[in-house]
Amino acid sequence: MTVEKIRVGVVGAGWAGQQHLKGYAALPDVEIVALAAMEADQVAELQAEYGIPTTFARWEDMLETVELDAVSIATPTFLHAPVAIAALERGTHVLTEKPIAAGVDDARRMVEASRASGRVLQVVFNHRLRGDIAELSRIIESGELGTPYVAKAGWSRRSGIPGSGWFARKELSGGGPLLDLGVHVIDYALHLLGEPEVATVSASTYAELGTKAMEGFDVEDIALAFVRLKNGVTLTLETSWDSFSRHENVYWMTVYGTDGGAELRVVDYETSEFTVFRNEGGVVADYDATPGENGGHDQVVAEFVTAIRGGETEWVKHDGSLGLRRAEVIDACYRSAESGHEVALA
Predict the structure, then answer these.
(1) Is residue 146 over pLDDT 60?
(2) What residues form DSSP beta bridges with 254?
(3) What domains, with CATH codes, occur in the chain?
(4) What is the pLDDT of residue 213?
(5) In this predicted model, what pLDDT tens digit does every residue of 276-296 receive, in sequence order?
(6) Buried/exposed 18-44: b ≥16 CB within 10 Å, e otherwise
(7) CA torsion angle for 193, 196, 199, 200 (degrees, to 10)?
(8) Omega of the bond leading into 148 within 30 degrees of 0 (cis)
């Protein structure tokens, strides 16, 4: 029996959009039927590479003209909500780049649109699919560390303000590294800890270097947060685009548990340290853990297509709620930093 192909359109021709195209092209039950982006030369190259029949400069024209089952959104963050809501209202499934939206109100509207339409809304959280994160998840779930009670996570760059100018303009991006990098950190940290609810956050943000490096820079260049979880666990977060630090690019996750601990450090996207700390019979029994195979955008795209294939009973499980929960934590961090006080989440 022949499976009808899922007709997909992609909005955005930059690096992220290219990852979505690559992921869809690898799936035999998907047909890329349209691409919308303003960069004419890049669009022409991608059209030729992937054999895309139709291209548009405006995403609105694509949604109005082409019959689509699903849309991928790989645009500046301020466009996530309008594109997603318009697509969902047309009965089209949506996969959007992180963060879900530039602000928490837009994120809520996107989730509402998904629920009203009964269509899938999924956010790209590819770092949780890394082999080292997956292995750390297995170690925690196995009970080897006992009960986690403290975790520390972050992503820091020595000089890594994104080259695309829109990232550093709040009206286009919604925020700086807390939103850009921090959404990944919050996602994999809460994922590893078993998705506990967040009780309160206390955060500080700074823009000491970014404003000197780029004209029009009006977001933070570093953010730190102290997060209390409702299950009693404490999580500390740190994200930065620009800081006088050791590595050009490093992210990490440290867990302290009642029976052991673990430290994962990834430098320039390669696992540099992955150690489990334990005592056995009163003797130190630390060991280096072995990461599994990395997933990424290809796996995110494949999971999105699988959810669509699952039918209505599966669609309701993918309404963007996970992305919204991440947005609510980030929003609370920004409000705490602005007010100088701890903020409670409802």
Answers:
(1) yes
(2) 152, 263
(3) 6-126+297-319 (3.40.50.720), 127-295 (3.30.360.10)
(4) 83
(5) 999 999 999 999 999 999 999
(6) bbbbebbbebeebbbbbbbbeeeebbe
(7) 30
(8) no
